From TrEMBL:
Protein name as it appears in the record: EAL domain-containing protein
Full protein: residues contained: 917 to 1194 of 1194
Domain of life where this protein originates: Bacteria
Source organism: Undibacterium fentianense
Location of the EAL domain: 23-277
Length: 278
């Protein structure tokens, strides 16, 4: 019995208990996060290297809980996915981002598009194209100003199903991009079948551009491959002038990162736009 007791402790260490306690806490708290208005969306500017203009934002989710404090999306998105809460949360992000972007259009910033991250769960388990169309109707945002950021994972379980959904969204005028490009696997063979318009070069490749010749080679190869396939490119995680210079030299289309701005609240973004233009 003693032996058993020990092995139980071995398999369930205090650390693991703490971790699962935290996990349960997140599961329970996340259920109420939306209703209790603890979630909000921040917007990170995306800049065209060709025109120097701010041509869009990426909508990023934030969660502030009264006791847990700020919980990072890297921690709570997986919880939202395993509980299915990502369906209602994801729809709320889409609606919030569409309404906000339409308001900016009406303010006169008519170039702005908005990129919304989509979980593979949302892609598989709902009538996504129908939901997206309804949100566009409600918000009066024109479809081409909505961009969905998908990861290579959306096609992993059911490639044909994923392609059908992409075709449907594409036919409705919504644009799609592949997020974290280069970090997943097998995307190359699907690239020509995917109705995506943009590749988003992962920040892990951008980070060490100046010091790592291999990352440099990968970034430049992705850009030239994208060009020959007729796809746009955006680099994320651009933090330094050196990275920016290299991306410019490679004719990357767009950039996003702390070098320009962190993800901003709607009113901070408005301030950023006013400063950018003058
Ligand atoms: P992601 O889609 O790859 O988003 C980029 C992440 O990089 C964001 O982290 C952003 O704040 C951060 N970032 C932007 N510029 C820089 C930079 O110059 N340097 C560095 N080091 N980081 C930068 P965040 O907001 O913490 O989001 C993390 C991940 O959570 C996202 O990665 C995305 O996968 C997920 N996520 C965020 N919001 C949503 C959402 O609404 N729905 C879904 N499904 N996932 C989301
Ligand atoms: Ca993203
Ligand atoms: Ca990314
Ligand atoms: Ca990521």
């Amino acid at each position: 019995a003693k032996q058993d007791g020990r092995s139980i402790y071995r398999f369930f260490t205090p650390e693991m208990q703490a971790r699962s306690g935290r996990h349960m806490e997140l599961v329970n708290a996340l259920r109420y996060a939306l209703d209790r208005e603890q979630l909000h969306v921040v917007y990170q500017p995306q800049i065209s290297l060709n025109s120097g203009r701010v041509i869009g934002t990426e909508a990023l989710l934030r969660w502030t809980h009264p006791e847990l404090g700020t919980v990072s999306p890297a921690e709570f998105i997986p919880v939202a996915e395993e509980t299915g809460l990502i369906l209602s949360i994801g729809e709320w992000v889409l609606r919030t981002a569409a309404i906000q972007t339409q308001a900016w259009h009406e303010h006169g910033w008519t170039d702005l598009s908005v990129a919304v991250n989509l979980s593979a769960i949302q892609f598989r388990h709902t009538d996504l194209p129908g939901t997206v169309s309804q949100i566009l109707r409600e918000s009066h945002l024109d479809a081409p100003f909505l961009e969905l950021e998908l990861t290579e994972g959306v096609a992993m379980i059911d490639p044909l199903g994923a392609i059908a959904v992409m075709n449907d969204l594409h036919d409705r005028g919504v644009r799609m991009s592949i997020d974290d490009f280069g970090t997943g696997y097998s995307s190359l063979s699907y690239l020509k079948k995917f109705k995506v318009s943009k590749l988003k070069i992962d920040q892990s490749f951008v980070r060490d551009i100046h010091s790592d010749p291999e990352d440099k080679a990968i970034v430049s190869a992705v850009i030239s491959m994208a060009k020959s396939l007729g796809l746009q490119t955006i680099a994320e995680g651009v933090e330094t002038a050196e990275q920016l210079l290299f991306l410019r030299e490679q004719f990357c289309d767009e950039v996003q990162g702390y070098h320009f701005a962190r993800p901003l609240t709607a009113s901070q973004f408005e301030q950023f736009m006013n400063d950018w233009q003058t």
